[in-house]
């Protein structure tokens, strides 16, 4: 995400409403503590730092998920980032059962470009985004196709968490040695041969014997 927001890491901000004290620790978690003398006063986690909320190619909030269990699901919190004179937790609500909404004010998001996603990406991902823009402009992809590419870019950048199926697919891709084309296979083979040669050279430099096999 935006590097200038990392200065909030390691800090916590609290907000008290009636008998509850809420604490937001950016890039860490959100907690709630019931400040009463009841024997079963609730004190727990409303969400752990998970991913960004991105809207119109802008960071608009932080999702804290996988909090304490609540009936059949886990508690989760969306933290809205808004411009303010100082860093402070300004408002807390529970729009639906066990889904919380926090408003965090900070001067760090007051600049109109402070929450743009594009500048935070690597050059390779920026290129991918530029290509998608061009395809959309040339009407070679639909709006839906464009959004799908953007979502993949954000997932690759680690801004959004891929779904479990996507993660499994990624893992499987890593472990299979199948190639879509002979050209890809040859390219990979050349790359591996280079790496093996480097490793062999390294071993001989250190006087370590290398036992190869016919299937190397």
Automatic annotation (TrEMBL):
Compartments, as annotated in UniProt: Golgi apparatus; Secreted
SUPFAM superfamilies in UniProt: Mannose 6-phosphate receptor domain
Residues of the DMAP1-binding domain: 117-216
Molecular function per GO: transferase activity
UniProt keyword terms in alphabetical order: Disulfide bond, Glycoprotein, Golgi apparatus, Secreted, Signal, Transferase
InterPro entries tied to this protein: DMAP1-bd, Gtb1-like, Man6P_isomerase_rcpt-bd_dom_sf, MRH_dom, OS9-like_dom
Keyword hit for Lipid metabolism: no
MRH domain sequence ranges: 10-112
Signal sequence segment: none
Recorded GO CC terms: extracellular region; Golgi apparatus
Keyword Ribosomal protein tagged: no
Function (record text): Non-catalytic subunit of the N-acetylglucosamine-1-phosphotransferase complex, an enzyme that catalyzes the formation of mannose 6-phosphate (M6P) markers on high mannose type oligosaccharides in the Golgi apparatus. Binds and presents the high mannose glycans of the acceptor to the catalytic alpha and beta subunits (GNPTAB). Enhances the rate of N-acetylglucosamine-1-phosphate transfer to the oligosaccharides of acid hydrolase acceptors.
Quaternary structure and interacting proteins, as annotated: Homodimer; disulfide-linked. Hexamer of two alpha (GNPTAB), two beta (GNPTAB) and two gamma (GNPTG) subunits; disulfide-linked. The alpha and/or the beta subunits of the enzyme constitute the catalytic subunits.
Protein name: N-acetylglucosamine-1-phosphotransferase subunit gamma
Organism from which the protein derives: Herpetotheres cachinnans
Phylogenetic lineage: Eukaryota, Metazoa, Chordata, Craniata, Vertebrata
């Amino acid at each position: 995400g935006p590097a200038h927001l990392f200065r909030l890491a390691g800090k916590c901000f609290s907000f008290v409403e009636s008998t509850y004290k809420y604490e937001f620790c950016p890039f860490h978690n959100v907690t709630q503590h019931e400040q009463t003398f009841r024997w079963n006063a609730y004190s727990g986690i409303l969400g752990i730092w998970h991913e960004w909320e991105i809207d119109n190619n802008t960071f608009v909030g932080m999702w804290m998920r996988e909090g304490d269990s609540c009936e059949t699901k886990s508690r989760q919190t969306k933290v809205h980032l808004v411009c303010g004179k100082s860093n402070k937790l300004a408002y807390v609500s529970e729009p639906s059962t066990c889904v919380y909404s926090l408003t965090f004010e900070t001067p760090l998001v007051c600049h109109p470009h402070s929450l743009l996603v594009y500048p935070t990406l690597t050059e390779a991902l920026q290129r991918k985004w530029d290509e998608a823009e061009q395809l959309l402009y040339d009407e070679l992809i639909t709006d839906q196709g464009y959004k799908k590419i953007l979502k993949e870019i954000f997932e690759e950048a680690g801004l959004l968490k891929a779904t479990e199926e996507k993660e499994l697919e990624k893992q499987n891709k890593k472990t299979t040695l199948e190639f879509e084309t002979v050209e890809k296979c040859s390219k990979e083979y050349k790359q591996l041969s280079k790496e093996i040669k480097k490793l062999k050279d390294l071993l001989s430099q250190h006087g370590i014997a290398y036992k190869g096999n016919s299937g190397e």
